[in-house]
# Entry
Amino acid sequence: MDTIDLFQTLPRVFESEQIPASDIWLNSARFTRGGRYLVEAASGGGKSSMCAYIFGSRTDFAGRILFDGEDTCGFSIGRWQEIRRRHLAYLPQELSLFPELTAWENVQLKNRLTRYASDRMIGDWFERLGIDSRRDTPAGRMSVGQQQRVALIRSICQPFDFILLDEPVSHLDEENNRTAAALITEEADRQGAGIISTSVGNHILLDYTSRLKL
# Structure
């Protein structure tokens, strides 16, 4: 997948409202593979909705979303499954970890499906992000910042052309932010992938090629 286009896209819940000028809503926006995009929005501006629309987990929007010129509204469940397995990675704001499973089990649950990363590679990611000592801790007993780092590792346990990061460092300090940014950048560079990250203030410290207002 080389391009993601949004044409006149808008959450249906906003259709009866007067929305501020936006680079995305009711506009034309293109994300290109290899680019680094920061989408900034006020709280309630729809950044999580935008990510969910691109990922195909929600369809309550007007307008169109195209992958390489093809309208996603016609995609079958099987097509979406393949896209999410091979082309589109996602770190949602709500993290969606299983609280009763350990940090390691949460990551391996996905990696067993994709068969992408070795245990040594995943172990190195845990160590780099400072959570190696917590790998056998149930996710529900970890801090939100620790859970964010677990979810970040899980998100890159697959091949991808684009990765969606919804408020990925909202609970991380600057040092952990930089470490997370370096890890994401390395993996995206290795795959020639694009990064689309959202923020309401504390954004992941990447070298962005474009900043857009939602």
